[in-house]
Amino acid sequence: MSDAEPEGLPPKCEEDGQSEAPWLGSVASVAPLLLAMTALGAALAFYLGWAYEKAYVEEWGLDFSAFSYNPYELMVASSTTLVWAVGTPLALVLLELLRPVFSLDTIFGSPAAASHRIHVVRSRPLLGALVLSGSLGAPALVVILSFVLGDLRTGLGTLWVVLLIMAGFSWQYARGGSSNARWILLSAVVFGVFFILVIAPAGLGRADAQHDKQHIDQLPRVELVLRRSLGLESEGLGGDELRTGPWRLVRANAGHLWLVSDAQEPTAVIQIDSSDIASITYIRDD
Predict the structure, then answer these.
(1) How far apart are CA 229 and CA 231, in angstroms?
(2) Residues 6 or more apart in contact with residue 267 via CB below 8 angstroms
(3) Do 95 and 230 fall into the same domain?
(4) pLDDT per residue over 189-228, tens digit each?
(5) Are strands 241-253 and 270-273 parallel, antiparallel or unpaired?
(6) For an engineered disulfide with 209, which of 59, 62, 120, 143 has Cβ 3.0 to 4.6 Å away?
(7) Domain that holds residue 260
């Protein structure tokens, strides 16, 4: 009588303890990588929020050490930088995806097409000079004027777009075999990372603070009921309550409120402890 196993039955496991669910091993192998990426993303969000918020409050003339943020609050604040930084690349990707709909040429052409364009530029030096000066001169002028006029957000946005365009064209020519394009691409990537980590969050924080100072009416409008007199000019009795305001709320943090007068030209920021406030009323602007 044969010892062969009957046909149609699953084979026996030769090794005891052999995994009956191979996907468990795959999940376990990538789990450390996912945890590391999560930790790195959380640290990046925390840092971007810290740099943004620090620049914002210091632009108001406040000492950042007086503020106490928990990690979640700073991660939420980092969304200002992240949304700003990711918005433009996503728009370019969307344009590329919609390219067939509008019958546009691809943003990143084939290596053969890139090589042809390199040959055309090399064979016509004047054309190359005009293209280079036009593609870099106009954005550079916008950036310089934006910073001179104090419009940091426009300047930063233009500079970010220029970096993306430089990286895109460099990638296109690098695929065509240009060694110079590879160096330009590497430089654009390195400066782009430095730009997002160092320049952008602090610049956006200062830009938003300057915008809020110029548009006080867009800050929350509040009126306070005080527990005791603080010697403020706007204090007054309203029935049995000691009221002050209205004020514009700059920040509320760690048991303190930072306020400016409800006027077109704001005065210095004042700080009031929450322990001195009985209640806060938010007033809707007409």
Answers:
(1) 6
(2) 260, 261
(3) no
(4) 888 888 888 888 998 999 999 888 888 888 889 888 888 8
(5) unpaired
(6) 59
(7) 216-283
Q: Is residue 126 domain-shared with residue 221, that is, in the same domain?
A: no
Identity of the amino acid at 13? C
In this structure, is residue 204 part of a structural domain? yes
Close Cβ partners of 121 (under 8 Å, ≥ 6 residues apart):
127, 128, 131
Q: What spatial distance separates the first Cα and last Cα of the chain, rounded to whole Å? A: 97
Is residue 27 situated within a structural domain?
no
Q: Give the tens place of pLDDT for each residue, 139-151.
A: 555 556 555 556 7
Contact indicator for 68, 253 with CB cutoff of 8 Å: yes
Both 171 and 238 in one domain: the answer is no
Same domain as 128, residue 202? yes
Cβ pair 248, 268 in contact under 8 A: no
> Can you give the length of the chain in residues?
286
Question: Do 186 and 63 fall within a single domain?
Answer: yes
pTM tops 0.85 = no
Q: For residue 257, tell me if it sits in a domain.
A: yes
Kind plus residue range of the DSSP H or E element containing 222? strand 221-226
Q: Which helix (H) or strand (E) holds 220?
A: none
- The token pair at 2 is 């044969």
Based on the structure, what is the number of domains in the chain? 2
**Burial classification of residue 165, based on how many CB atoms lie within 10 Å of its CB (0-12 exposed, 13-18 middle, 19 or more buried):** middle
- Please list, residue by residue across 126-154, b when 16 or more beta carbons sit within 10 angstroms of its beta carbon and e when fewer do: eeeeeeeeeeeeebeebbeebbeeebbbb
Cα 204 off chain centre by: 9
Specify which residues 237 forms β-bridges with: 242
For residues 144 and 285, which has the higher predicted lDDT (pLDDT)? 285
Token pair 């700003």 is found at 84
CA pair distance 60, 209, nearest whole angstrom: 7
In a shared domain, residues 120 and 256: no
